[in-house]
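Hey forum,

I'm writing up a methods section and want to include a predicted complex as supplementary material. The small molecule is S-adenosylmethionine. I've pasted the protein sequence and the SMILES. Can someone with a working setup run it? I'll credit the forum in the acknowledgements.
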Amino acid sequence: MDDKAKSRQYFNGHSSTGINRNGYWSHDYKATTAVLLDHKVTNHIDIGCGNGAFLAYLHAAAPEITIHGLDYSAEMVSRSRERLSCADIVEGDAEKMPLPDEAFDGVSCHMSIHHYPHPEKALIVFRSIQLRM
Ligand SMILES: C[S@@+](CC[C@H](N)C(=O)[O-])C[C@H]1O[C@@H](n2cnc3c(N)ncnc32)[C@H](O)[C@@H]1O
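Reply by user p_vandermeer:
Happy to help. Structure tokens for the complex are below, copy them as they are.
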């Protein structure tokens, strides 16, 4: 099994445990949301969205923003979809983004990129889908 498959297996097993259940990352979600609102983002994607914790936070704070998520773990995708029926959640690899270029005006990636075997490929992808600053 390669590193990416091991990562997927690991996160499939953790989709229901609530990775952020103690709110460890809430301050980061708050700061990211403030930046997105400041830049008047309208169509946002969270890469490595996990079980949708950040997207749920963002949606509660700014329901006018259209939200999308992408995750490599099918179980995480399933949890996100259950949690956020209003969001478009896609199963896929951040290193080979299965979405069109320049489709979003906001991109976040929270506690996920360090799990990618080739993060430089994901950075190229993030650039191609463009973060307005
Ligand atoms: C520590 S969790 C963080 C989840 C979420 N961002 C949050 O704030 O709760 C890392 C997530 O990255 C996802 N991930 C790992 N490798 C990935 C890849 N190559 N492409 C997309 N997602 C990936 C995992 O499946 C997992 O859901």
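Some notes you might quote in the supplement: The chain has a mean pLDDT of 87. Strands lie at 43-47, 66-71, 88-91, 106-109.
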